[in-house]
C-alpha cells in the first residue's frame, strides 16, 4: 500500500454537499439507463422520452412504497 492509499483508507470524507457515495444496488439499477437506455424525460416528441418518463415514474412509485413501508415498520406513521 502506498502512502496516499494509506491516507485515503484512514480518512473520513466530510464533503457530502459536493457528492455522496452511491449504494451498489442503485448503481446496478441505474447503469443500463445511463449507458444504453438513456433519454430526456422532459422531451415530448420521441420514443426515448416515453421510456425515460415511464421508468422515472415507476421508480418514484417504488421509492414511495418502500419509504412508506419503512416508516410504518418503525412506527413513524
Would you kindly provide a written description of the structure presented here, covering whatever features stand out?
The chain is mostly helical and 77 residues long. It is built from three helices and no strands. The protein is flat and about 50 Å long. The chain starts with a helix and ends with a helix. The mean pLDDT is 80.
Helix content: 55-70%
Shape verdict: flat
Please identify the structural class as seen in this structure: mainly alpha
- Count of individual beta strands: 0
Distance between the termini: 48 Å
Main sheet characteristics: none
Q: What is the overall pLDDT average?
A: 80
Q: How much of the polypeptide forms β-strand, as a percent range?
A: under 5%
Number of contiguous helices: 3
Whole-angstrom Rg: 19 Å
Unreliable stretches, pLDDT < 50, 5 or more residues? none
* Pattern of helices and strands: HHH
List the helices and strands and how they pair.
Elements: H1 3-9, H2 24-35, H3 47-73
Put the structure in a nutshell.
By secondary structure, this protein is mostly helical. 60% of the residues lie in helices and 0% in strands.
Supply the key terms.
77 residues, mainly alpha, 3 helices
Amino acid at each position: 500500500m502506498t502512502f496516499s492509499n494509506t491516507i485515503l483508507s484512514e480518512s473520513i470524507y466530510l464533503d457530502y454537499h459536493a457528492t455522496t457515495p452511491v449504494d451498489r444496488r442503485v448503481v446496478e439499477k441505474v447503469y443500463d439507463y445511463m449507458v444504453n437506455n438513456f433519454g430526456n424525460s422532459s422531451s415530448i416528441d420521441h420514443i426515448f422520452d416515453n421510456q425515460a418518463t415511464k421508468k422515472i415514474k415507476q421508480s418514484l412509485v417504488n421509492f414511495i412504497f418502500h419509504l412508506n413501508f419503512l416508516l410504518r415498520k418503525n412506527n413513524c406513521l
